[in-house]
Amino acid sequence: MIDIDIEKLMHTTNGPMTLAIRTSIRLGELIALFGQSGAGKTTLLRILSGLVTPDKGQIRFRDEVWFDSEKRINVPPQQRNISLMFQDYALFPNMNVEQNIQFAQTEKNQQKVLELIELLGLTELRKRRPSTLSGGQKQRVALARALARKPQLLLLDEPLSALDAEMRSSLQDEIVKVHQLARVTTIMVSHDLSEVFRLASQVLYIENGTITRTGKPEEVFSDNSISGKVQITGTIAKIDRHEVINIVTVITGNNQIIRVIAFESDLETLKTGDQVMVYSKAFNPIITKLK
Amino acid sequence: MKMKIAHFQIPKSSNRRNMDPQFVQTLWITFKLAFLTTVILLTIGLPFAWWLAYTKVRLKPFIEALVSMPMVLPPSVIGYYMLVAYSPRNWFGEWLGRVFDVRLAFTFEGVLIASVIFSLPFMVQPLQTGLTSLPDTLREASYTLGKSKWTTFLRVLLPNIKPSIITAVALTFAHSIGEFGIVLMVGGNMPGETRVASIAIYDEVQALNFKAANQYALILFLVSLVLLTTIYSVNRKYNSWKIM
Asked: What is the spatial distance between Cα B94 and Cα B90, in angstroms, rounded to a whole number?
């Protein structure tokens, strides 16, 4: 178990806010941190990695105490055996792709480096410097580097945000695969509902510095009264109001466009950019294999 | 440590038949002084700039001001204080003489120490700026990957501030070559010991020996020009080399 009970005063653009997180995470899970920007997700990752010191509280990883404000214990990041994948990737500009990955290894193992390079589709880019890579390529290098350390806790800050739909989908598979293989406890910040549903076994929903909901993705995001047979999550791209009907255009995680007719009463709570679920319960959906 | 006891000697400016060996000797001392100043400052400056870049001590602005003082104070002020400190009548000079049998006033070693203090900002400031302009996440990423502060400094920070290191070294060297006031105050004008090119120029002009003054001046001019051109071309090359 990872037991977290911390408080930290944060200075945000909307004024001071207290991050007060109290939760326990089972080892081996893949946790998604979900919430609006500024809710404290990145700060929580930085606190877990030891880069930010909480004002008070405790963090315990298994039986190791990582932080205890009363006992004045604060284990430095180097000794926590974690990997943090940064939002800005933080690749070392003086090293090429391969060297960045090698740097992260505690014991040199070129075979593993090549495996990771292969796994993340970086073979062609091995000898390139980070400054010559695109955002998506940098993100893959950063992920490879984070994995190379073989951490006991993997922290990913929006790991796939810069990738196109196809690459994102294939890397989601890789994350699942890596997670299942190594059973490394993973905590991942994500803004993408479909990603959360696909990857996470648990969701921590953070609002204004506290966890307001936890559970499996279905439990956290869907109303329990819905017993829909088809559930698709996505983002509202457009709302067209016509005289008789209103059409809501929803774009799903894999860029599928769905048009839904909505009632005037529904629209009172919906606006463009909202994360929504499209579901059907009256009709049995038809399933067909893709050619 | 071998140090010479200072003794006053008035250079014979009128004796021009031996000008060539003296000319070479003066240039040798000039470059030896600049080279040693730069080496010592690089050794002290790197860890010091590292500490200064990331420290959170309250006295930081005061320490930064102290480091920058040589840039705003007349060299004669620093030279005066150095001379006072070196004097055997004060505790530092007295202690040096008693414990090490060393006198620093009007010796090459004394000038070297003064030069190190005087050029400190030219080494520390570019290094500190280079370090603070690196994204914090580079250091943090290295720490989270289990690397110590020392490994991070050597393998992540230093290689990424190469342009700042080159700038700092070239500026310090150029500035040490061009020193006048502090050398004159602390070292005087002793051929073979403390006489450097900038002082020799002044001396030759006083003696109306414009030909020799011209030679010194031209060499200083050219060396400084080459060094500064190096700095600017390095900066231009690395400007296209973005961190992120």
From this structure: 6
Interchain pair A77, B140: CB under 8 A:
yes
Contact yes or no for A93 and B160 at CB 8 A? yes
Query: What's the pLDDT tens digit per position in A248-289?
Result: 888 887 778 888 888 887 788 888 888 888 887 666 777 777
- Spatial strand order of the sheet with A246-252 comes to A257-262, A246-252, A230-241, A275-280
Smallest CA–CA distance from B149 into chain A, residue = A78
pLDDT of residue B240: 52
**A119 CA to centre of own chain:** 20
Instruction: Judge whether A100 and A91 are in contact, CB under 8 Å.
Output: yes
Q: What is the pLDDT of residue B51?
A: 95
Mutual angle of helices A110-119 and A135-148, in 10-degree steps: 140
The residues that bridge with A22 in the sheet, in sequence order, are A5
Nearest Cα residue in chain A from B242: A131
Residues in chain B predicted with pLDDT less than 70, given as ranges, are: 1-19, 239-244
Q: How many CA atoms lie within 13 A of B22 on its CB side?
A: 19
Q: Which residues of B touch A156 (CB under 8 A)?
A: none
| Cβ-Cβ contacts under 8 Å for A235 (sequence gap 6 or more) | A193, A250, A251, A273, A274, A275, A276
DSSP class of A286: P
Q: Is A4 helix (H, G, I), strand (E, B) or coil?
A: strand
Which chain B residues have a beta carbon less than 8 Å from that of A103? 142, 145, 147, 155
Q: A108 touching B, CB under 8 A? A: no
Note the Cα A236 to chain centre separation in Å. Answer: 21
Residue in A closest to B241 by C-alpha:
A131
Tell me how far CA of residue B136 lies from CA of A10, A37, A42, A89, B140, in angstroms: 18, 21, 15, 12, 6
The answer, for A81 touching chain B at a CB cutoff of 8 Å, is: yes
Distance CA A148, CA A153 (A): 12
Q: For residues A10, A13, A15 and A18, what is the CA-based torsion angle, rounded to 10 degrees?
A: -30
Which of chain A's residues have a Cβ under 8 Å away from the Cβ of B141? 84, 86, 90-92
Q: Cβ of A84 under 8 Å from any chain B Cβ?
A: yes
Token pair listed for B21: 């060996």
- For residue A75, give Cα distances in angstroms to A53, A81, A219, B29: 10, 11, 35, 52
pTM of the model: 0.77
Q: B243 touching A, CB under 8 A?
A: yes
Taken as a whole, chain B contains a residue count of: 244
- Residue B43 at interface with chain A, using a CB cutoff of 8 Å: no
Which residue in A has a C-alpha nearest to residue B148's C-alpha?
A78
Query: Does B160 sit within 8 Å of A92, measured CB to CB?
Result: yes
Chains A, B: CB contacts within 8 A come to: 63
